[in-house]
Amino acid sequence: MRGWRSVLAPLGAIGIALVALGLLLLLLGADPLRALGALMGGAFGDRNALENTLLRMCPLLLVGLGVALAFRCGVWNIGGEGQLYLGALAASALATRVLPDAPALLLLPLVVLGGALAGALWGGIAAALRVGRGVSEVLSTILLNFVALLLVAYAVHGPLQEASGAYPQSDLFPLAAQLGLLPGTGRVHSGLVLALLLPAALWFGLFRTAAGLRLRAVGLAPEAARYAGIRPERELVRVLLISGGLAGLAGALEVSGVTGRLFENLSSGYGFTAIAVALLARLHPLGVLPAAAFFAALSTGSGAMQRVAAVPAVTVQLLEALVILISASFALPRRTD
Amino acid sequence: MDAGTLALLLSLLRLTTPLCIAAMGELVAERAGVLNIGIEGMMLVGALVAFAVGVSTGSGLLAVLGGISAGAALAALFAAFVLWRGADPIVCGAALNLFALGATGTFYRVLFPPELAHATAPQPGALVFVVLTGLLVLGVGLFLARTRLGLALRAVGERADAAHAQGVRVLRIRWAATLFGGACAGLAGATLVLWIADTFVEGMTSGRGFIALALVLFGGYRPLRIVAGALLFGAASALQFRLQARGLEIPYGLLLMTPYLLTLAVLALFASRVRPPADLARPFRPRV
Fold first, then answer.
1. With an 8 Å Cβ cutoff, are B271 and A142 in contact?
2. For residue B138, what are the contacts with CB-CB under 8 A and spacing of at least 6?
3. Does the structure show a pLDDT above 90 at B240?
4. Residue of A12 and B239 predicted with greater confidence
5. What is the pLDDT of residue B198?
6. pLDDT mean over B75-104
7. Which chain B residues touch A76 with a CB distance below 8 Å?
8. Which of A147, B67, B145, B216 could form a disulfide bond with B46, CB atoms 3.0-4.6 angstroms apart?
């Protein structure tokens, strides 16, 4: 029964959300089936669409894993978007300003690592505020999202703006700082391989190691965990660093593998969609894989839906929100409080 | 009073009023034990509905009522998941903000195609909103401190099971408090389009809901202190624009971060000194 539930409940959540969205589209005077068809075509219709979906899956997978870990530990990291942007910002600063002349072999690893560290730092600020000053991470991560977005805007209008000064964007990354493409694909970068391996690694870490047990124990019952000799504060810091690091990594891969440069609105809300990904996955690292694929397809298809069926692409956010609400109230394992 | 001081005062009120309104609603909800981080989204929906009603009817009053009902409607959705289904309020609040972004984006584009982009909402005038806010603060303050129902509401937020044992309808009060909070957020959103700006812009609340949440904490869950905090906050922001106008050497892009950094700083300084309602964000399940 439990095994079935973990598959059926998310599918049910998607089903209910889709029906609700269909009704809304009817209300708006659009044809829901036509919109759905356009969406599917835009996500899987041809090779290009499929590669697009894979590209979008990468950040959703990484940030979604981070959110799932944090929520499991009872840490409400709503700051994935800001952490992702900070990772992209740090990677771009390294690739175009600080280290562009570093040895080619070292440049790419440094850029990607720098992005992950910057994301971890952004998560770490929220952790420090919580542990040191008693500030709820809910508010601090949300506020840090705004700060990160404005930092990126400032950077691409100021210190990181391209040499020609034509657009608010950074210079193109030097080739040595760009991720290679997967053989046989036109656009899919090799970072996807890393992203696809992480769910299994994190599953092992979460369910087969002592560190994972501590993290889950704090999420289930912080006070009981404290009596068992676990320090919830330490777990909170650790999980926010990991979660922020994963989002920062996603940001770094995005600039060095997809866009090749930094600009505003780089992310199209991956940090928020990742919350839907994590909840649809029932906070399970392996579940994040299909959940990220689903929302990536939705995100890719929404563009086609806007062109073909005249349904605004932002409508997809409604679907994401409904999936979160329904998953949170019907499909999530109940916390014993 | 010279023109410069008057302008400063007016910009102070513009920055403070929407925050005060939203914070009063959140205060009532939190004193009843409901943590609603979705007020940002409720403000946004309130702003769009107020704008749409204002443009189509030309009536400021109807626009305000539209904004209020929209905020309350979204709060009802929140309450259905959190109070009825017992879902986590933080997850649901975050989802509601996403929902509001999607809903306002969709409906704004459908209702206002490019040829209608220059529509403007009616402007009832600053005085209306300032007086309304004053009355709201006074009303909330008196209600919480001086009425029997206000006492029951505070009891529900502090010890829901004890209040339940006293015969207080815990869930009913939480529902009402949540709806009131949503209505206030909707009014705050309406204020944005009917006074602060005369049009709707996607994502125009730009974090005001979250700042209001922080103000509730900063004010120690007391109405007048929250207003004082909001004024302080508004004064800092107004002065910052003043300094900018005097040609201070801080890049404009960094200056835009001030409200968020200020809020973080305020939280860092005061969060640990404040004791939130004991049963805040805890689910309540009555024994049947």
1. no
2. none
3. no
4. A12
5. 85
6. 94
7. 90-91
8. B67
H-helix segments, B147-257: 148-158, 160-165, 170-191, 208-218, 223-245, 252-255
Q: Which of B54, B55, B81 is nearest to B65 (CA)?
A: B54
Among residues B185, B150, B161, B172, the alpha carbon closest in space to that of B75 is found at B185
> Which residue ranges form the domains of chain B, and what is each CATH number?
3-270 (1.10.3470)
Dmax over Cα atoms in chain B, in whole Å? 66
Q: Tell me, what's the ipTM?
A: 0.92
User: What pLDDT does residue A336 have?
Assistant: 42
Q: Which of A272, A324, A335 is the mutation pick for testing B, counting most B CBs within 10 A?
A: A324
Distance CA B223, CA B137 (A): 6
Reading the block at residue B287, the tokens are 């024994």
> For all residues of chain A together, what is the average pLDDT?
91
Residue A127 Cα distances to A121, A156, A205, A243, B212, angstroms: 9, 28, 21, 11, 22
- Is the separation of the CB atoms in B42 and B187 below 8 Å? no
* Lookup: tokens for A114: 């720098």
Which of A52, A53, A58, A51 has its CA nearest to residue A247?
A58
In sequence order, what are the residues at sequence separation of 6 or more whose Cβ sits closer than 8 angstroms to the Cβ of residue A158? Answer: B251, B253
Chain position carrying tokens 């009131």: B180
User: CB A318 to CB B103 under 8 A?
Assistant: yes
Distances (CA, A) of A82 to A330, B231, B258: 29, 28, 16
- Counting as low any pLDDT under 50, the low residues of chain A are 1, 335-337
